[in-house]
Amino acid sequence: MKILIIRYKKTLGVPEGGEQGSEKNLVVLQQIAGKENVDTYFIHDEAHRRTPLEYLQGILNMPFGYYFGLTPKRVREIVTMAQDYDVVFVDRSVFGIVAKRLKETGYRGHVVAFFHNVEAVYFAAKYSKFTFHLSSFTFHLNPLRWLVVSCADRNDRWSCRYADRTIALSHRDDDELFRRYHRRADVLIPVAFVDRMSTEHLTLNTEHLTLTSVPPKCMFLGAYFPANVEGIEWFVRNVLPHVDIRMQIVGKGMEKLKDADWMQSDIEILANVPDLDPLFLAADIMVLPIFKGSGMKVKTCESLMFGKNIIGTPEAWSGYELDYSKAGACCFTADEFIAAINDFCARPRPRFNTYSRQIFTSQYSADRMVDKFRSVLI
Hints:
- By secondary structure, this protein is of the alpha/beta class.
- The protein folds into two domains: 3-189, Rossmann fold, CATH 3.40.50; 199-364, 3-Layer(aba) Sandwich (Rossmann fold), CATH 3.40.50.
- It is 42% helix and 17% strand.
- It contains 16 helices and 14 strands.
- The protein has helices at 17-33, 52-61, 72-82, 96-104, 119-126, 145-162, 171-181, 199-207, 226-238, 277-282, 298-305, 314-317, 324-327, 334-346, 354-364, 370-377; strands spanning 3-10, 38-45, 87-90, 110-114, 131-134, 137-140, 165-168, 187-188, 217-221, 246-250, 268-270, 285-288, 309-312, 328-330.
- 42% of the residues are buried.
C-alpha cells in the first residue's frame, strides 16, 4: 500500500497543535504501510517567506475554494501524483477541494479526509469580526473573515461529499458535521501523541513523587490565538488576584501579551520555546481556561502524556473521556477555578499525576490508534 499525505505546513521549530496532530498521523500511517511507502505533499514550507503577491493570489483564489497555499496548478499536480498511490490522505478537511478534484478526474484509489476540527467553526473563532492580521497587514472591520470562513465551510462540505472515508476527533465534531453536511464520520480517532515521556523521567517521577510546590507553578500553554488570548486574559483578571501561584504562559507568539494592559509583571512569558518537555516536567498544574473552539485541545492530551494535574474548562476537556476530579478539575466559573487551585495550595499532592498518565497510555497514545487508522485505509 502506497500513501500520499496532503499536509498543511512543513514547520521550523516547535510545531503548533494542529501540526503535532498531523505528525502523529504520519507516524501511525508509516507504522501501517512502512516509511518507504508514505510520502508527504506540503502546502506550505515555513522556510519559504511568502511575498505580498503570493498573499494576494491566495486571497483571490479563496472564492473558488482554494484555501491559502492551494492553487489550481498545485491541485492538478496533486491529482497527477496521486495516480501512483493507493491512498490519498487529506490531512486537513480545509483541503477538501483535493478530494473533489480526485473523484471528478476518476482517481481509482482511496481518499481519506481527516477533520482536525470542523474547520468552519474553527476559523469563525480564529478570526475576529473586526480585525484580521495577515503577514504584516492588518485589516479593520475584517472584510476577509467571511471569505475565509466560507472557503473553510465549502471544503468541509467537499471532504464529506467526496472522501471515501472520513475521520473526526470526537462525538461533538461528528454531530456538527452531520448537522451541517448530513454525513457521519466513518470513525472517531481522538487526539493522540507519540509518547515523549522518556524512560528516565518516567522512572524518576514514579519513584519520587515530588509534591506540588507552595505556591504551585501553574502553566498555560497555547499559541497567540484569539481563544487562547481571551482565555488567559479572563484568568488573569478573574482568577489570579484570588490565588497564590507562580504563573507561566508558554506559546508561540505569546510575547505579544507583554504589552497588554491587563498583563501582570510577575507573570513569566516564554515564546517560541525550542523544547517544551522540561517546562512540562517542572509545572505543578496545567491551567487551561479555554471557552471557544472545535475539535479537541492538543494541549490537554500533551498534559496527560506528561502526567500533569490539569484544571480546565469543559472546552479544554471536550472529547476526553476520564474522571476530571482524578486528573485535576473541570471548572465552569472563576469561583470554581479559585477553589480548585486553592485546594492544591492547602493540600499539596504529587506533581506527577499517575491517573493522567494512565489515561494517556490507555486511550490517547498514538500506538492505540493503529487499528482505527488501518480500518479506514482498506
